[in-house]
Amino acid sequence: MTERRRRSRGGWLALALAAGASWAVPDTAHAIEYEIFVDAEDEDELYELYNTGQISEGTYTTLVDLMRRGTDLDTAAREELYALPNLTYADVDRILAYRTEAGHIRDPAALVAAGVLSQTTLGSIAPYLTVGEGPRRKAPVNGFVQYQTIWTSGDLRAPPMVLQARVNTLKHLTLGMAGTLTRNRLGSVAWDPNRDGLSAEPNAVRPWLPKVFVQWDTPQWGVIAGSYRIGFGQRLTFDNSGRYTPNGFFLDDSYYRRVKLTRLCKESAGELGEAPCDDTRYATPDYRFRYGLLGVAAGAKHIQLPVGWLQLYGFFSFQPRDIYQYQVYDRGRCSDPNDADNPDCSAPPVFKRDDPLLQRTSEYSFQTLPNMFDLMLGGGNFGWFRDRRTHVGVTGYGAAPRWRTQGVDLDYRPYSPFPYGGAFGAVGADASWGYRWADLFAEVTRSFDHQDDVGDGKTGGGGFAGLLRHTATWDVHEIEVSARYYDRAFNNPFARPLSAADQNAGVRASDEAGGRVRYSAFLADRVSLRAFFDVWSSVERARPQLKFYARADAQATKWFRPGLWFQLQDRDVTRNGGVESYCDLGDNAYDTDANGSVVTEDPQDSMPTTDPTQTVVACTGERYSLTGRMRFDPHERVWFMLQWRHDFTEDTDYPGSVRHDGAGYFLISTRPIDPLRIRMRWRYYDDDMGNRARYEQSMWGYFDVSYRVRRWFVPRVRYDVIFRLDRRETTLARRPNPEHWLWFEVESRF
Fold it and tell me: Domain boundaries in the chain?
């Protein structure tokens, strides 16, 4: 069948990686902007790019998914190839033209020989590819099994674990799963009429199987049952795939590790005189999963017509969902969820369920409540393609939540990612046109919901949104220009279009109008350039904001690669005087739980507020960032990198001046012999260099060793130590400090 290229023994891989490994070149964005020339051999190197601020969380999760799923150059469609890092539309079209002429791409090294891709570009995409092994047998079998666990000092519970497995057979059949052992997840939730609130079983060690699927996928049609992701068009009507230009369904078995301790005690006094546990103790986090869909999807990908072809997809999902405890309210007590002054419209308390049930008990805080509602969802897509670059399509879906808790009429609060009031959905039309160097994309969508008020006297019920994107590609250059408009009443939780990092009504693509320009080039197979400019504003209130960055990375010599990057973010371009303070909303605006819901798990580390209702804040001010990086390759088996990022941030504590933040990195990686890989990294982070009592100051180092004993046995061990150096009261009381982490992985491929 097929096999990941980075693990194959073909000669082309040695050629590709020999050139590609010489490239590793950085900051935050959303989805698939691919802020740098991405060159990572495996998931761990992707994680390092994310940790060092070179790529955003959105880019990291997208690339991890791509790496785990794999892309077959012999069968992938245009949009699938464009999702790979470092490829322009010109590269993609050359690959497709070569495949049409040659019939197959059995050996990707042939793309270099034919002048389709450079050695460097092919080497950089090699870890994301699958490769056929000559004529396929009737029923080959291959796949992998991976086990991981993490231990941290001071946590005496059973450690979190995750087991992932995938099997490919019968040419088109794929089976997979990902299960975990959780310790921080609450048990069942019920309504307690005696306390007029919710009650939940305490967290305990429990197995959980969030991902399992069976897929049969051919170039003409496909079907998947279980966990999957799906998306279409410009991601404005429906998408949860993470792809830039999705078109169809994708298997979903991804998980992510977290290197941030979680508070062991999330209980307040409640009915007791004081909190029953120590809230200064921190413990190992569970593995993280992102919700996709759970059900069935099927598609006829290519129904030939006299001119072009048709595409038909249908999908259905019925999935139990978690929700953050502050995102629900009791409709029986509150008639208007937008009435912030009515205490009956706040989230109901969540009590710890003890035995006997009526004894005094504590109250939970900052928790995600498991399996609170079932989300039933169905939709479809129809498209006509004149060719692979020109098409028109229609996508629509509808969804209805069913709350599981009996005895109370729950609903979503206005800032939840889901609209309150009942069923919701969206319908939209998208189109694309391409000729020579130009590609034009457009999508218009109307959302529907039962919200009667979206604030400021505006009625709900859904709204309109539109996006227009044009990409011009020539030689080694690509420039993309886009414009977007999302009505204030547009509330589509399954929209993932281009948008800024702020939120309205719990979603990013709402109450926003703006435009952006993105440019990339790879000059002389040696210099990588990236530039980005985005300006946007609220639709209802003129409050312009902008983000700009420019990056340049060069292969100065065979052994030396410097890079320099500049970034500007301005939260309010047309402000009217006064002292401002910049708020860093991050890649996703706030931490999110596995449901994509807003979570403020640790209020001490969350900016700018600990109030769970404040999901949209009036952030103003500017931040300028300057990053320098130097990578050295003194030997073919050793490389190391030095990087420093310095931020100049407007802050009310520094009137007439700016706050200085900094982050420095040292990373070294070596392969003394082919099966052995050793890595070490140190990071110094300081969020306010002039005051050690305000924000985080820390030192984090790790040492990582993996050894390929056999193809079927690759163990890996990693040790992390984190010193928290700031003088905040919460840090001084925090335990453990320093933090000691031990991570173990074993993988077997067959």
Answer: 1-136
